[in-house]
User: Fold these one by one.
Assistant:
Number 1:
Amino acid sequence: LVFYAKCAVMSDHREDEESRLGSAYWKNQLLLLQESAVKPTMVTCEKPVKERPAFFGAEFHGLIGRDESDRLLASAGEGSYLVRQSRRAEYSYTLCIRFDGQTKNYKLFYDGQHFVGEKRFDSVEQLVADGLISMHIEKHAADYVRRMAEQTIYEHSPYSQFQRMRQRLKEHHISGVCALSPSCRCRSSPVGVVVVEDVFDVEQHQRPVKSHTFKVQTFLTPHWCDYCGNYIWGLVGQGLKCEECGFGAHRRCAEKAPQDCRPDLKYVKRTFGVDLTTFSMAHRMPVPHVVECCVDEIERRGLDTEGLYRVSGSHEQIEKLRLQFDADPCSARLCPAEVDDVHALTGLLKLYFRLLPIPLVTYAARRELVRTVGGRLDADPDKLKLVGRVLRETLPAAHQAVLALFARHLHRVAELSHKNRMTDDNLARILVLTLMTSSGTVEQQRIDPAPPLVPQFELCALQFLIKHAPKLFIEPTRTLLNKQEMGLSDDDVKKQLRQMIAFIEQEANEKAEEIDAKAEEEFNIEKGRLVQQHRSKIMDYYERKEKQVELQRKIQNSAMFNQARLRILKAQEDHISNVLNETRSRLLQISNDPTAYPPILKNLIIQALLQLLEPEVTLRCRQKDLALLTQLIPSCVDEARKASSIDCRVSIDRENFLADDSAGGVEVYTLGGKIRVASTLESRLEIISDQLIPDIRVTVFGRNPNRKFLD
């Protein structure tokens, strides 16, 4: 009695508590981040590429540099990518991705599948999409990801709660928690399950410890971690899954998972807490059995019940029904003999929708629906058509089927509001947080766990769906036959048939308009593509022409510069030649000076004799210097003998003379003319000019700044 009394008191506050704790069951923050991640955009290579690998498509740009790839990606925007051939190694490829205003380069490999790290992908686009999701989550929720495994209490996780409840029911051989001993003390868990604290878990102490057998798993549908309750992000190889019990988790969470694998519970097939799309694909049914059964039973005997969906049902009975549907949906019975309270059925439905990982009206559908409805309940044909299109395009098929069934059901409830006191506005206020879970940031959910306020725009959108459900959703044949069996009149049947025909015509017209719009859009896209191709060709042509003109201009400037430089060099050489010629003319004046010339001639003769050091030499001079040379030879021979101790016999060539225009000096021959030493003023001028020309150039023209070597 104490047990049932406590549960009765708790049931009055159950709605607010479960709304507050619903976010602790499945955490959708990472799912929202994945949906907001930028989508990949391929930068198509429009130029022909030689030897393109067969496993690459139009994203391969061949041998281009980093600067070129960065320019292409910057112009394409966030999420753009391309593949280029690496310059460092042959048959090596680099994947370039634009993210957060930067170009990131990764070495790309292929062994039948594309990969950068451990994950393998069938296409480069899939690899880029997965990478963009990971980088987006790392950027916005890195701290949250690092903390989510450490801050999780495994005993409060969905997987642990479900396994403990199943084990206790198995030990005590009961079909529901209502058979528990009255002496047990109860508390409410974060997932809305009654957890018995004082019952001794025999198998937990006697069962041998067994670790999970984890394997990398690619989840084809949205999946949440059974350890921390957070969404497992990514597209391929997102997490790990136990091959024996189906426990799925993040890689970090799998490291902290306790050794509690139960091989007899392979791939737990439950109804509550399972994504609608996953459930529909697994069980091959558009609407879950629990929704159909509850809706049929409520409409059969409870549409006129006052406070429908507002009054809370028995928590114990709801939990009992929940466990029955989780164990075997087909064996669950909702007849009056088993469930006499209609509010327990409405509570079971609300609990089912509240525990969905993805709300019945998904985040994307809610956003578009709020924008389309615009806070107004009036419904003209165009608005109804637009809302119907939004529901079809944004909601998954499983969500569409369940929403259609439940919205029509709520409309029938609102039609009897004069009996049950539940108008479409009241129903929307009660169910808006259940069907349209309010989203928030990771930090908001962590810091402020209080239940969110009723969102007014979502409230108006849900009220619009309930009010105009017959016009938005077609009535299935199953429901029509059931109502005929319940005794509908022929007029009601004809009315429903007319509604069905009108809806089909409306769908056909919308489909035709959609086909026309799509054809026009494809035509515009193709036209734009052709225009872009021609524009690209024209731009390439003009770019080539600009490069050619620029090259010609550079060549002309270089030629003009070289010509000017050559003219300057020629002028400098002419000036140096003039200086040397003037020097030669002044040498003639010296040789004509009778006072200065004899000592110079004597020194020239002595230097020539000392240079040869031969016993017999022949001198050749100008004809006008013959007398002077004859006079100077004895003294020159004596000085040469003193300097070298060699007695030299000198003769004068009286037949051959130096040119008359010569500046003076002598030429010395020996060994029959085989050896010749020029000791003239011109030869000395040439030697001096060769040695001093660089210094003369520096003195006259200045130092050349471009000259780096002086030797």
Number 2:
Amino acid sequence: MTVSNSYLDYAYQKAEIERTGKTILKIAQQTGNTAIAGFVSEVLDKLSKEEFYLAILGLFKRGKSTLINAMLGQPIIPTGVVPVTSVITRIRFGDSLGAKIRFSDGSEKEIPVEELREYVTEEGNPENEKKVVVADVFAPAPILKDGIILVDTPGVGSTYLSGTTTTFQFLDRVDFALFVLAVDPPVGQQELELLNSLASKSNKILFVLNKIDYVEPTAVEESVRYCQKVISKQLGPKIDSSLIIYPLSAKLSLEGQLHNNPKEVERSCEKDFELILKQTLMAQKESLIIKSAWKKIEKSAADLRTFVEVKLNTLEMPLDNLARLLAEFEQYLTTVDQKKRELFYVLEGRVKEIINMLDEDLAAFKKEQENALVKQIEDFADQRLMSEKTTARSVVDEVDQYLKKSLIEVYSEFIRNEDTRVGSRFQQLVDEANGKMNTLIGDVKHKAQQLFGSQTTDSLFSVTLDLETRFYYHLDPIFFDRITFSTGEIAQLLPKSLFKGILKKQLDERVRDEFDRNGGRIRYDYFVTRVNQAVLMLRRDINRALESSTETVKKAVYEAQDLRKKNETEIFSSVILLNKLLGELQVAQTQAIRKQLGHDFEQFRQAPPTGL
């Protein structure tokens, strides 16, 4: 099994950024430039924490939790004979094993992984009576080191409705999906329904066929072909025509690792699949992450070089001339600050435009969908009231659940479409900020060159939406756990023929209230809050970039002034050290530019040709 160029390139580029960044960090520390040292440290820290969300999906009893344990190399996630997982569980890298449970009231509780079963399984937490929102597990597993976060979901199709509902709600928040099939039984109608829902929202799906140890190799091949045929026929263009299903045995892999049996692990084919999985995930994020990190490292190197050169030139400059030039530079910075405030004012206006667009889209969506939803719920209530198997009380419960499911379905489409629109408009805002900042920082550097003789470089200011604020479906629930019709206990004891009028009288108002309430929550929690967070980060990056460029020059001049007060031996030693560090910095800077150009060329070379 070979690893793709994409994954190797990501790993190589990441290692090169870390190596070059550490060199620049060391020089910044040796020159006493704590601002640049802090910035580079932050870039390296964020690079090490980039995350890739991978949801493990499928029908119950397909071995999803066992597959996760095989990936982790130890039995961490609960497994069992009956359907187990009832709460979404996220597994991320940690130096030691541990878990944290988050509840619907916002509280959190740290627990040992041995107690996980009491919170995430149907047996330990029936119908999620403990109100767990999500469980976070931390494990020192190699597969998690590159920022991959595994997400275990409740199996669809078990007798426990809560698990099925949770997973269907979760589909709109899948970043990348691993769909688990099994040789026995083969793909069925429930799996196709789940796949159809998933494929309508994302084409980022990998398929595995688990439990190949249950049958002969020829039967595995037949099962793979059968699943490919059925899935391709059912989903058509929603799924890549070159549908690949990877056969493996999670059970064999886990047992082989636990008993130190490499042959059994190899026979399971699970580790081969892990390589494919990692290279696929890296290909999704690699270009954005690497390009952004290289630009920040390159800018840090350029600022640090300016700092060293200004300091060296200032040491040789007449003191009276130096004071005059510093005063001129301080006066110039008031103009820079004014331009920054003007940029922030423009950004505020752009954000208001985005929110106005969101409000207009949401209002149009409500106008289009609200009446249809009311009729849909009323029709469902009529249908259930006519059934001989229902009671007034059971109909209320069914309408509760159906309304919740319907709200999720109708708003999922809005979220998906609006995500694209809001994300696109926000990216325009970021691009505009980048352009204005490049001009402003370029002016600062040229002013420093004019006054103090530093060599300017064409490093560009560039910010991107951080992963935590980029517009993708997050993993936190966006709907309330339950919607309750207050028909009254006495009313629910009436015959259905009499109860029907009471229920229908409340349906119209309640459905509209819930439609509006959830729309408001989605507007604020899902869109407005994230836009505001992203703008705060953008303002922070702009402030830091300007401070780095301006304070670099001021700090170099002030330190040179102080150094001039010392004896000639100390000054001479400082000049020698600064020249040495400048040489090392020039090498690191050249390597950073060369590596970034090499990365960009490789991305261009691997890009598919476009048609004429």
Number 3:
Amino acid sequence: MLEAADSLFEEFKNKKEIVSAINTLQLSARTVTRRIEVIAENLEAELANDMENCIFFSLQMDESTDGTNISQLAICVKMVFSDFTTKEEFLKVLPLKGSTKGEDIFSTFKKYITDVKLPVQKLSSITTDRAPAMTEIIDKLIEKFSSRFEDLAALEPVLRFFINPFNVTEDDVLEIVSVYFELHNIEDLELEIINLQSDIILKAHSNDKMFWNLVDENKYPILRKCALKIYSYCATTYNCESLFSNMKYLKLKYRTKLNDSHLDNCLKTGNSKYILNYKKLAENMDTQVSH
């Protein structure tokens, strides 16, 4: 609330007094709940927009038990955009109230991505904590979608190529890239690799962190798209693990009335990296009240 006040009363001469007065306010539990719901809805809309606009995204999943002994599946997302910028966000926490076997976790995950219409055609990879049940999810995804969820260790030559395409021969990566990225015209890929490795201007920028953003999309469409997919990968479940640390404070043994929706909303508001427009939120709430 105080953070919102900084935005709402930024141009007020008596801002300090207003913020001080707000600091003494005591809101009812129902009011606090509704405010968190509104903020979470706004964050969900921001994330949905980014998911729509990103080129690829990867998911990180981990499972843990909360303070009331309910297993929770945390899902975080890493998105990559056309300019090679990336964003990492908390996506969802799903309660696993039955069995926590791999097949049951997969069913819960599958229902979620179906309900929210997650654009799975952009999904590049999934990282888990490698527990047996979570590994089974990867097996199910390979069975349902394609080989694109296979172990990234097999892609080491490809990853080395995209880190520095001038230190790897085309023979090392050609077949792997064509199979993994489901390419049908290997000749076009081969020509792009040859042309890129012969480009002295690009070679001069080979150590630039944003090298692939310098690569012409019209001249190297296949390689650029493959690079975007590589950029979307995430090798750890650190974000999920951090989320569970926060969850333990939110849902304690003595705070059992926090339902699934409220837990998800609290985690969104507490872990999102999006910067909220509190002024716009307040204006929207005023409009709703007036009606």
Number 4:
Amino acid sequence: MSLSKPEERLALELSCPICLQLYRDPVTLPCGHNYCLGCIQNAVHAEDPKSSKHCPECREEYGSPETLPKNFKLSGIVDGFLAATSGGGLRGGATVACDHCLDEPVAAVKFCTRCEMSLCPSHLKRHEERHRSLHVLVELPAERDGKRCPVHLKVTEYLCVQERLFLCSECLMEGTHQHHEVQTFEVAKGEMTRIIEELGKSVSDKLQMTEALVKSANGGPPNKAEDKLVARANILLDNMTSLITTYKSRMSTEMDDKLHTRDKSWQANLCDLEGCLHQLQEAQQCTSEVLNQSSEFLFIQNYLTVEARVRQAANVTIPGLHSQESSDAKHLCALLRTDAFHAEMSLLLECLHGIMNPLDLTFNPVTANPSLLLSTDLKTVKQCAGVKSSCAGDHSERFSSVSQVVCSQGFSTGVHMWAVEVGPGCAWSVGLCYKSIPRKGDHSRLGHNTSSWRLQWKSKKLTACHDSANVAVGDGLIVPPKKVEATLDYEGGTIAFHSSGHGGRKQHLHTFSAMFKDAVYPAFGLHSTSGDSWITLLSGV
């Protein structure tokens, strides 16, 4: 309850000296001092029960608090005071200060229509003595449209912008403000209205962004980032284990088949060698027998008998041992698809490296169109059409024709993944571009040049575009994705987009194929101006 000075003095007189509040059930001590019944009872309880009771102010002795008489008159005065102040009976509206009391404001009681000044009782008496009945005095008006100049006592009509002072016409004639910017109240109000409306719009835009961030933050950490990171790493490690297990199983099967075939071939080769050995041994024995024959007749006879067999043995081709380790190893690599295994394992390792070393993307303020508003951490962008944002000023990298912004981080090698969350009902573009993308004109739009690739949700349609070749994608998607993930394989020449739903379920949206020749940068666009038009870069992806 706000009170004027007379009311404050009255309220002080009607306050209990113990609790310093207005009396409640006041009682009177024999000495004449008054207290709230509850306050005097509490004071008695705080003292020694066996000691006598004394007035807290004058220390005069009295009996039990229960025997003290209630002060009905004082109680009625307090009730009347409360009723008057709560209903405005004592104040008659807001207090109007006396225009003559400059050191300390004093409540005025009358208003002079001739001087257009409010007067306190003291200055009212002097005013009546000076002007007698020549000036008309009335009750205080509810409001005052203007304030008088304290120097010349004339109504102020101007504002000194530099010194922020109200001036009257005589202040201007004196020339003390001739080098200052002076405005009439009408001009000043118009200028101040424009400024406050611009500031209000900026505050409103930032309020909407903050509310969206608070709403997102109130949901708690997004799926507990640490748990999500561990889960994704475990999935990749499980995939690696599965890949190795499959490769090992395939290798064991192929090796068993190879060993069985080799054993059969070896046995056949051994049989051939043993047959050849037996033939040669037999021929050697026949040769020895012929040469050891002393009779010429028998020598010739035996020669004629064994000559054909010995000649055949002498010309026999000895079968060699099979040695195909080199060719078998190459054949085995082909059967086991070793190159494919190496490629898959390398991709999984790169993905694991990306998870354990997550990207920390931020928007580049110097590239943002002036209609865009960036958050302090440079991770959220929203439209602020009609308001000059912090992304103003000329810069060679700034998009001047379309509401787009590029990230500060670029990639010229490796596999990288990032994700964004988009506002509900927002029309957006998510893509990739070279640093050489045009910054002005229609060809600066993402996807409408050879320097960029983009996925876009607009007019309830999902489209993909590169070099102005626009195609519908998403298999008749009706509900816009709330979270979009992008995966760049620089050496592989692909940029793939997926939507991420509840439970981590992903839906492939589109994949671009390209032979990247320079560093590429994540790029984004906003094509709607509603309060829900925003894009937020997600960390730890």
